[in-house]
Structures are given as C-alpha cells and as structure tokens.
Amino acid sequence: MKAIIQRVTKASVSVGEEQISSIGRGLCVLLGISIEDTQKDVDYMVRKILNLRLFEDENGRAWSKSVMDQEYEVLCVSQFTLQCILKGNKPDFHAAMSAELAQPFYNNILEHMRTTYKPEMIKDGQFGAYMQIHIQNDGPVTIELVSPSAPTDPRQLSKQEKLQQRKEKTRSKGPSESGRDRATPRPRGQDPNASSGADGDVSSEREP
C-alpha cells in the first residue's frame, strides 16, 4: 500500500459542483491499494498515519505532535493511480487492487482509523467517483509512505532480493572475519563501484 500524506490548513473533496467533504487543519491522505495488500498493511498504514509527528507543539517545536495529539482531522481519498508502473511513458495500473475488492478494503481502512482515533475526525471522498481535491498544503509538508510488503514491480523485486542476499552474507560473517575484510586493502584494478555488501546493513525504523 502507498500513501501520500500532506499536512494541510484545509482540504476538501468535490464531485461535480457538490462539495462532499472538507476538513480544517490536519492531514489529507491519498491511499493507493495494491493487489498484494493484506490486513497487515492496513494496520501499518493506520498506525503510521495517525502517529506521524508532523505538527508543532504548544511551544512551537516542530515535528513534535501527531494529528491525534492535536485532535486535528484526516481526509482520506482512494487513489489507485499511486500503484502506477510506467511502461515507457504509459501508466499501467495492473498492480492496483480491482475496484470490486478495493472498495470494501478501503472501507476497512476508514473503519480502522475511526476506531483507533475518533469517528467524527475521519472524513473521506467518494470511492470510484471523478473527484476534485482542493488542498492547501501547510509548509509545504508532504510525506510518502509505503507499507513494508513485497513490491510488484519486477525490477524492485530484484533489488530487494539482492539487498536481502547482502544482508544474509554480512550476518553470516564472524566478527573476526568481518574485521579482517575491513582491514584488507582493495586489490589494484578492482572496480571501485563494486559493492562490499555493507550497504545491506539497514537501520530499522522505530515504530510509534
């Protein structure tokens, strides 16, 4: 699942000439659901969206408070185009969940948000409609969020597999062996851009 999260001073959704939803200060969240998403992705996204520290505290200290801390509103809009994979210059949306499955899945996300936070603070657009989204971005502050599930793009899958292999090789080395590797000078003529496997050491993200 992918999300574009924008800190806003106000945002609204219209269908045709009718405004169907609006919020004051808070977050506008565009959600792209993939064919591989599960309840685990829902839990991760809801937790992150509601706990991201994108607001200042009462002393003006930035990045201190979440939307729940400040009791601000959240406007969610289903956005299948976030699951776009470009084929040349043409967008392909086969990675997006079909509308028949995505609608109840999206409703589940909204319900989870309302249960976790306050029902009246979670607003949404109209699923499947041609909407106009009016956003007054505050900052601007825009965060891209991706749930930790396997990507559907084969190129991304290949990168992830290589990264995992490097991590496993690094972990399999004993401390003394790793120390010797670091102390050994690079042989003359070796490609300076060749990977040593160290880029597989990825620091874990702290969960709220």
Automatic annotation (TrEMBL):
Family: Belongs to the DTD family.
Protein name: D-aminoacyl-tRNA deacylase
Compartment list: Cytoplasm
Glycosyltransferase in keyword set: no
GO-annotated cellular components: cytoplasm
GO molecular function, one term: Gly-tRNA(Ala) deacylase activity
EC number of this enzyme: 3.1.1.96
